Amino acid sequence: MGLIPLVAMLSASMLATGCQGSRAAIEVKTELIVYAASSLVGAFAELEIGFEEANPGIDVRTTFAGSQVLRFQIEQGGPADIFASANQDHMEALVGGGQITNSLIFAGNDLVVIVPKANPAGIQTFADLGQATLIVLGSENVPVGAYTRQLLDNAEQHFGEPFKKHVEARTVSLENNVRLVRTKVEMGEADAAIVYRSEAFSPRLTMIPIPEKLNARVRYPIGVLARSENPSQARTFIDYLLSTEGVQTLSSHHFLAVQ
Amino acid sequence: MNRNGFFSSLGSLLGIVLVSLLLVPLLAMLVSTSHQDIVAGIAHPMFLPALFLSLKTTSISLALTCLLGTPLAWWLASSRSKSTKIIELVVALPIVIPPAVLGVGLLQTFGREGLLGSLLQNLGLSIPFTASAVIIAQIVVSSPFFIQAATSSFRKVEPDILMVARTLGSSAVSAFFRVALPISLPGIVAGASLAWARSLGEFGATLLFAGNMKDETQTMPLAIFSAMESDLQLAIVFSLVLVGGGGILLAALRCLPLTVALTKRRPR
Predict the structure, then answer these.
(1) Strand partners of residue A219
(2) CA-based nearest residue to A82, from A203, A233, A243
(3) Is residue B57 within 8 Å of B219, Cβ to Cβ?
(4) What b/e readout covers B23-37, taking b as 16+ CB neighbours within 10 angstroms?
(5) CA-CA 20 to 30 A from B235: which of A48, B124, B131, B220?
(6) Global model pTM greater than 0.90
(7) How many secondary structure helices (H) and strands (E) does chain B include?
(8) Chain B interface mutation, best of A4, A137, A171, A173, highest count of B Cβ atoms under 10 Å
(9) Residue (of B176, B106, B169, B161) closest to B139 by Cα position
């Protein structure tokens, strides 16, 4: 009984997608598929608009996920033209596997402490982090967590006390991406967290910078896939990222320019 | 070929398509995994604590779901008022909400700045980032499945049978336990196993509400998510173990009404 409507629905949706395909063909726009790390969502959405205005013949389609997931999808034949990663290891693995011919660094980031606007633990500087009783960090499996461990090691050497152990003992959750870390602080459930600078700007958060000499150096590589059918358009996109306009957009989203 | 024959072979063909769709991805994961991968996965420090925590929390949430859900389902099935219909609809709502959003809602309820936050703080209770949060998240996502199944199987209990039990001198309570419950047991067990399976796979609400901490709140799905960020093969091994263990426990649960029926019949 329920089968006929189901079949009708399926065929209707097939027809609908079929129609979309033919419409795109009439407009003859080149589709450029960009796989980008989740932390780039805001910046890349804006870059896409700027780039498409400057290049009306190209339609940029962005997909956002964790760098590891994107790398797996590329290895499994995902239809990407460009890969922008938050982590150099994943890019190097793809270059090593021949899926990407070469890559370059297009942006940088560093780590900051975020606390809720109410700041229940009264944290004023990075050195106060130990005052917090509920700390949320990135898991060491993910880039932000690995960078955080680097930072804590540096801090331990600098402050000459069991700083790292102290912070780890008060850590209540190890999240698998920066957004989850940030949400916990935004909702006031955590006293403090360590995230990328680019994630620290929200009306509910106060950002506390971390001294440069202790901070981790976060770098974002980008590369064109070897199997891309539109390599020259892909390179145009990367050139746009590195242009004055592109760099401006990236820095308005609090990424650091890297030369 | 006659019409019946045609439809029955068409039916089995369509069934085969769906069965393959459900099974082939699992087989693909199995095929991509070697014996050594499985050994390495089980030996991984994340594995045992996560498995143990999953078993512990899902057992507790299942028990609480049955305890709180059975009277509710009985009431939903036996009451004829309009409000019942509304409540029946409302308790099914969590099924359509993405679990991660439910997790945010739970934080806004039980969190420090949540609706019950100051009350809980006065009582000295802090729920987020604890195993209690894991259990609450599991109950919220899984109990709608139990309530639905239990309600519809209670509806199948004929009021006449209960009436007969009452006229034969049994109290309302004993009529429920000795007549209604045994009749609806297969449906209730099916609902309970569905709810338990949903709890075992629960991820989004737990992630938001309870966080991800080994030994404390990192259940199997969260361990799988963590492993996926660094080592996909490890995530696959964890998932296969979860599927295998879950399958065995589900089969055991489904056999329960049968064994109950058999053990009851034999002595008499």
Answers:
(1) A108
(2) A233
(3) yes
(4) eeeeeebeeebeeee
(5) B131
(6) no
(7) 13, 0
(8) A173
(9) B106
**Among the listed residues A193, A148, A196, the one whose alpha carbon sits nearest the alpha carbon of residue A41:** A196
Q: Is the dihedral of CA B135, A120, A192, A257 positive or negative?
A: positive
Mean pLDDT over residues B140-156, rounded? 96
Which tokens hold the place of A191? 């006293």
Can you read off the two tokens belonging to residue A40? 């780039």
The C-alpha atoms of residue A26 and residue A47 are separated, in whole angstroms, by 25
Which residue spans within B59-120 are E strands per DSSP?
Answer: none
Q: Among A15-24, A158-167, A181-190, B183-192, whose mean pLDDT is lowest?
A: A15-24
User: How far B114 CA sits from the closest chain A CA (Å)?
Assistant: 9
pLDDT tens, A18-46?
A: 444 444 445 678 999 999 998 898 899 99
Closest residue of chain B to A183, computed from CA coordinates: B208
pLDDT tens digit sequence for A150-179: 999 999 999 877 889 989 999 999 998 888
* DSSP character at residue B128: T
Q: Would the CB atoms of B107 and A187 count as touching at under 8 Å? A: yes
Which residues, 6 or more positions from A157, have their beta carbon under 8 angstroms from its beta carbon?
Answer: none
Measured CA to CA in angstroms, residue A9 lies from A2, A13, A14, A82, B17 at distances of 11, 6, 9, 34, 17
Give the whole-angstrom CA distance, residue A254 versus residue B61: 43
**Inter-chain residue contact B232 with A68, CB threshold 8 Å:** yes
The Cα A134–Cα A117 span in angstroms is 15
**Is the pLDDT reported for residue A10 higher than 60?**
no
pLDDT at B261 over 50: yes
Task: Determine the residue type at B196.
Answer: W
CB A191 within 8 A of CB A122: no
Q: Tokens 């309530």 map to which residue?
A: B147
